[in-house]
Amino acid sequence: MSIFITGIAGFVGCNLAATLLQRGDEVAGFDNLCRGSTRNLESILGHPRFAFDAVDLADIDAYRRALTRLHSRSPVTEVWHLAANSDIPAGIGDPGVDLRDTFMTTYNTLLLMRELGIGTIAFASSSAVYGDLGDRNLTEDTGPLFPISNYGAMKLASEVAISAALESYLDRAYVFRFPNVIGIPATHGVILDFVRKLKRSPGMLEVLGDGTQQKSYLHVDELVDAMLFIRRQAGDRLNYYNIGANDEGVTVRFIAESVVGRVAPQARISFGQGNKGWVGDVPKFSYSIAKLSGLGWRPTLGSSQAIRKAVNQIAEQESGN
Amino acid sequence: MSIFITGIAGFVGCNLAATLLQRGDEVAGFDNLCRGSTRNLESILGHPRFAFDAVDLADIDAYRRALTRLHSRSPVTEVWHLAANSDIPAGIGDPGVDLRDTFMTTYNTLLLMRELGIGTIAFASSSAVYGDLGDRNLTEDTGPLFPISNYGAMKLASEVAISAALESYLDRAYVFRFPNVIGIPATHGVILDFVRKLKRSPGMLEVLGDGTQQKSYLHVDELVDAMLFIRRQAGDRLNYYNIGANDEGVTVRFIAESVVGRVAPQARISFGQGNKGWVGDVPKFSYSIAKLSGLGWRPTLGSSQAIRKAVNQIAEQESGN
To answer: Tell me, what's the pLDDT at A279?
Structure first.
């Protein structure tokens, strides 16, 4: 009996796998190793209760062969579907990236769950499904849902493919709408960008936008904890939760100053114009985690503490390069 | 300069095309002729301002060739994207149908609009995007959106692919959430089913479910009128409207009795159990058209009048067979 994770070599996947192994589960996972890396799995490769295969989930034939083989050796009881394109700007340039790596991986996962009779899915969705609703308080039941990035669109398309599947063959689904998640192993994101920029030119950090853009951040350790809490506690057929920090978030200026303070205290920070970093980026939003709080879970770190922890970890990670 | 319609040989497409030609537009359209038929275009094939091509829009290469040729002859100013799988139960059996014919046709349409620089899309969405929200009043801003059919899921996935495209290259979009639409040429739906059942066995009409299932219905003539009204009057970049009758709808029992009355007055009606016709069918919902009323449009026929009109038209259509 094993828990199967897609995108297991990615940022969240490898952290989830390590936590599940620690608590005694049998864990198997696939990854196309496009953005994920087996380096992220170094600490668990070889673990007796762990299995990994490099599989492109957008290739249904390869995916079917590999999952059928895995399932016959150790029946998969639930699927944690984390595989996705995690690079939002890439999906603006080429919508095919989000179509293939986010939506079609979900579609194929559902197809195989139906074929193999696996009834439970946990899905990594995103706050990007809400699009830009201005200052509105974003609860899970907020509408309308008009994402402004292909990333958000294909996450929402995946959510609704799951909800339709629940009506006909799935038993149970958990939809987690992720906030901005930080921590290690960092593969992308604003902190890593800033750290690398400063390593290249330690005298000056150039920031896209005017630095007033504000978001809340959650550390990946807490994200994993929240997902497992919801998986344990929520009892509906379709369980959908915002996961996030319990605060208004921090500004890009705060992040820039934190990174400069840790990596290159002498550097000047130069801000650009406007409060959007790139097309499809949502400037500020208020993201409610009241539903998750009601279930009984709260983060232990606020956004600013999570940023400081992640800045230290990412600076450390990059210092070896 | 032409208006381009996908799914033009389908039920709504052929009615829209005829109306646009009547008002003087140049109209071109593609259809894969899988559910649509050139018989539906008989009255307009040969019209000097009309062009039709049989093209599978799920085949991007064929679609690109055909649309590029059309666009170079007569620049397409806007796209009315109506092509979709219209058979909800088919998509329960094989989710690939809705993926290919509903979502991928949208995805490919957007891809080509980007390549060819066509900025305006009007999209036939569906009340099925709302899923089953019980007795809630369904306004355009209602959430959460968890469709219970692949049909609804792929319509919603299409909506959000459009909203993401608006953020980066589209100029303007019109999203029409269709109610149950009736009229001719009828290709599927409850009235046609009942008429055909009665032609096969004129003594008895068997109805799925207990007949209490209630929906509102709009005649296709009014649907086309409402879409063109919204296209003319709505001025946002993203204009999304429920279109429907201004009433609580009619029951399946009412429809069955209307069809029996017109086609086989002596027939008995036999009802089944429960108020769901099939998996993925939403038993009853309250569908608000307040936003559309606010824009200034109202249907002239209520659901019951629309049913009677359509029953007469469909009985007539089928009498020739």
So the answer is: 56
- Cβ of B131 within 8 Å of Cβ of A161? The answer is no
Instruction: Please say whether the beta carbons of B9 and B37 come within 8 A.
Output: yes
Give chain A positions within 8 Å (CB) of B279: 167-168
Assign A246 a pLDDT band (cuts: 50, 70, 90).
Answer: confident
With beta carbons under 8 A apart, name residues in chain B contacting A149. 164, 167
Query: Helices (DSSP H) in chain B: which residue ranges?
Result: 11-22, 60-73, 88-93, 95-98, 105-116, 150-168, 190-200, 220-233, 252-263, 290-295, 303-319
Per-residue pLDDT band for A247 (boundaries 50, 70, 90) equals: confident
pTM (2 decimals)?
Answer: 0.93
Helices (H), A23-75: 60-73
Residue with tokens 């009828």: B186
**Helix (H) or strand (E) run with residue B174 in it:** strand B172-178
Which residue of B114, B123, B159, B160 is the best one to mutate when testing the A interface, meaning the one whose CB has the most A CBs within 10 A? B160
A and B: number of Cβ contacts within 8 A? 109
Q: What is the mean pLDDT of each run of 10 residues along chain B (321 residues)?
A: 97 98 98 94 97 97 98 97 90 91 98 98 97 91 96 97 96 96 91 96 93 90 98 98 90 96 95 71 73 96 95 93 55
Mutation target vs B (from A105, A114, A146; most B CBs, 10 A cutoff):
A146
Q: Which of B142, B153, B163 sits opposite A164 (nearest CB)?
A: B153
Chain B CA closest to residue A153: B160
Which residue does chain B place closest to A158, by CA atoms? B157
User: Residues of B with CB below 8 A from A148's CB?
Assistant: 163-164, 166-167
Instruction: Give dist(CA B240, CA B230) in Å, integer.
Output: 9
Nearest CA in chain B to A151: B164
Chain A residue with Cα closest to B91 = A164
Q: Name the residue among B313, B251, B315 with its Cα closest to residue B277.
A: B251
Query: What is the enclosing helix (H) or strand (E) of A194?
Result: helix A190-200
Does A281 have pLDDT greater than 90?
no
Coil vs helix vs strand at B12? helix
Q: What residues are paired with B173 via a beta bridge? A: B121, B238
Task: Report how far residue A140's alpha carbon sits from residue B107's, in angstroms, rounded to the nearest whole number.
Answer: 27
CA dihedral A205, A206, A211, A214 (to 10 degrees): -80
Question: Rounded to whole angstroms, what are the CA distances from A319 to A151, A188, A203?
Answer: 31, 16, 17
Q: What is the pLDDT of residues A217-228, one digit of tens each?
A: 999 999 999 999
